[in-house]
Amino acid sequence: MTSDVKSITFDFQSFTLEQLHLEKAPVQSQRETYYYYPPDAPSSVYFIKRSVNPEKEYKTMIDAGSSCVIQPIGLAAYPPKKGRRKYWGIIMRLAEPIPLNEWTLQDIRQAKDAMEAFHNAGMLHGDIHPGNFLRWDSKVVLCDVGCAQEINSSGIGSEPPWDTSMNYLSPERILHLGESPASVADDKHAMALTIYKIKTGKVPYGVGNDDVEYAVKAGKRVNFDEVTDPDARNLIKALIHV
């Protein structure tokens, strides 16, 4: 981690949330997720995102650049303590989720552009789906890059997909899960399924995440013909063969 990273320490045992300039964020199933109001700019609001590996995810966001990923402002840290990791989250500017019924064709194009810019930065995302796009600075960008991998000149990563949304994998990947490294092709298929979800409102494969593998093995496939918008269809065709 470079020395110019801003690290902010939050001592939860010694100070109140107000004294730490924090407010609990209403995020389900996550602990220690907060809004941050910096004392030197109290009218500004930042979001602290928990991460399994904050340093790695922070670096990925910086390396990818602002054309496709929200840029973090620093790392949230615990007070130094034996046996505890120093960093636990990433501090970033607040961005807006995009409700499914508010996606426009321009939003979809910007999402596709953000993914391609991420690839051009030498990385694959590994978990493309509608919820991992946000509106930031009047543009659509990627978020949650914890599953990202560096790619080689052929667009191939170093390990199979992991901790990803099964509903947005291709049938071929689902049938051979774990047999080969993830690739840019996986992201492209996930983007095609993202467009399918946005335009039809239907969950790809029609089942929950835990049941996707069984459904695909039983012959279930996504019918892209259900996307009737010709412009959206052309975007899907530019991503995968349909």
Protein traits:
242 residues, alpha+beta, Transferase(Phosphotransferase), domain 1, 6-stranded mixed beta sheet, 6 helices, 11 strands
Description of the molecule:
By secondary structure, the chain is of the alpha+beta class. The chain has two domains: 7-94, Phosphorylase Kinase, domain 1 (2-Layer Sandwich), CATH 3.30.200; 97-239, Orthogonal Bundle (Transferase(Phosphotransferase), domain 1). It has six helices and eleven strands. It has helices at residues 54-64, 105-120, 171-175, 184-200, 212-217, 230-239; strands at residues 7-9, 22-24, 34-36, 46-50, 72-77, 87-93, 96-97, 123-124, 133-136, 139-142, 149-150. The strands form three sheets. It has a six-stranded mixed β-sheet with strand order 1-5-6-4-3-2, covered by helices on one side. Strands 7-9-10 form a three-stranded antiparallel β-sheet. Strand 9 and strand 10 form a beta hairpin. Helix 2 (105-120) runs antiparallel to helix 4. The longest helix is centred in the last third of the chain and has 17 residues, at 184-200. The protein is globular. The relative contact order is 0.11. The mean pLDDT is 93.
